[in-house]
Amino acid sequence: MKDPVDFLEMLINVTLTLVIPNFLMLPNFLIVGAQKCGTTSLHEYLRQHPQIYLPDGKETKFFVDDERYKKGILWYEKEHFGAVRNEKAIGEIDPDYMYFEQALERMAVDLDLRSTKLIFVLRNPVDRAFSHYLMTVRRGIETLSFEEAIRVERERITKNYYSNMHFSYSSRGFYLQQIQRCLIYTGKTNMLFILSEDLKKNTMDVLTTCYNFLDVDEGVVPANIGVQHHMAKVPRSKELLQLILRETFAKKLFRFILPSGVLRKKLRAKMLELNEVKAQGIVLQDDIREVLSNKYSEDNAQLSKFIERDLSHWNYCQSEAQDNAG
Q1: Which of 121, 113, 56, 123 is nearest to 83 (CA)?
Q2: Burial class (CB in 10 A: 0-12, 13-18, 19+), 242
Q3: CB contact at 8 A, 50 and 89
Q4: φ, ψ for residue 290 (rounded to 5)?
Q5: For the range 13-16, what are the long-range contacts, defined as Cβ-Cβ under 8 Å and sequence gap of 24 or more?
Q6: pLDDT tens-digit map of 312-323
Q7: Secondary structure of residue 77 in the 3-state scheme
Q8: Is the bond leading into 83 cis (omega within 30 degrees of zero)?
Q9: What does the alpha-carbon distance between residue 119 and residue 190 come to, in Å, rounded to a whole number?
Q10: What count of other Cβ atoms lies within 10 Å of the Cβ of residue 3?
Q11: Rounded to an integer, what distance in angstroms lies between the CA atom of residue 196 and that of residue 218?
Q12: What end-to-end distance do the CA atoms of the chain give, in Å?
């Protein structure tokens, strides 16, 4: 017979896993990616619907960040869904959930994925990769050229979670294998696939599709349709950027004076915004685009069949406008 203490602990954990989620206000839909495909715009649109609840802050990182996940599902619910009232569709948007395998594994433990709706926003993977690169440059994290970063990507992303998070430019573009992992836990009928170009050009049509998928009133028109989010930018001053990002005594003191993480995050974002200028001179070279397009061609063809959309235009070696979709 097992030690009584160990047995009791096991019993408690099983009970928490099976029973507590039924009483918590947890997401019944997730927009899981992909990164740099327009999820920020979709977040801003959907959160204006009175029947849809989304946390103020996009990307909680709960299911991918080890330290946050250790805080438990009760913390997650209280921290991000404590303001839920009578909204019908309760969701979260985090594009890392699609890419990181442990996110899906953890969600399968804490959420009922069989009844959770999943939305995927997909973009030409070559443009997505370059947009991701520009974002990492803007944040002062990337110092390599795009060509060199792609060349050493495999070596970098296997180092640790941080490197995989920031330097996975081309790896994140193999969408189908990421989608197929979700099929282990839920069916295709619980999935909605959106193309970023449709979200940009036919915004209201895409939102209506989302509303119907989430079973909410389709007559709501967001006030901010057409507002562009996350334009491609680079740091005005790299020195100021590092000062904002670097851990200092002044920042530790500021955390003590302003304990609210939400307010600190907003202030930090504003400071970073003031230090940004439109990206000029950083362009995706045609030869690199051709290499990446060829790399993705087979996956794109299989994805096209799976989502039943023509994606042949993704294989052309031509660039979309640098809208840097978020």
Answers
A1: 56
A2: exposed
A3: no
A4: -65, -40
A5: 16/73
A6: 999 876 555 444
A7: helix
A8: no
A9: 8
A10: 8
A11: 20
A12: 54
Tokens 């449709």 sit on residue: 198
**How far is it, in rounded angstroms, from Cα 133 to Cα 122?**
17
Is residue 91 classed exposed, middle or buried when 0-12, 13-18 and 19+ CB atoms within 10 A define those classes? buried
Amino acid identity, residue 34? A
* C-beta separation of 164 from 71 below 8 A: no
Q: Are 164 and 65 in contact (CB under 8 A)?
A: no
Q: Can you list the domains of the chain with their CATH numbers?
A: 27-229+285-315 (3.40.50.300)
Residue positions counted in the chain: 326
Packing angle of the helix pair 125-138, 286-307 (nearest 10 deg): 120
Sign for the pseudo-dihedral over CA of 194, 195, 196, 199: negative
- pTM across the whole model: 0.80
Phi, psi of 53, rounded to the nearest 5 degrees: -110, 125
Q: What is the pLDDT of residue 1?
A: 47
Task: Report residue 122 as tokens.
Answer: 């997909």
CB atoms near residue 205 (< 10 Å): 11
- The band of 267, judged by pLDDT with boundaries at 50, 70 and 90, is confident
Q: Which two tokens stand for residue 108?
A: 């399968």
Which pLDDT band holds residue 266 (cuts at 50, 70, 90)?
confident
**Tens of pLDDT along 44-78?**
999 999 999 999 889 999 999 999 999 999 999 99
The helix (run of H) or strand (run of E) holding residue 31 is strand 29-33
Per residue in 208-245, pLDDT (tens digit) is 999 999 999 999 999 888 766 555 555 565 556 566 55
Cα 243 from Cα 240, distance rounded (Å): 5
Q: Which residue has the tokens 């362009």?
A: 283
Structure tokens at 281: 């001179």
3-state helix, strand, coil in the chain (%, to 5): 55, 10, 35
Q: Which residue has the tokens 């999820």?
A: 39
Say which residue, 266 or 188, is predicted with more confidence.
188
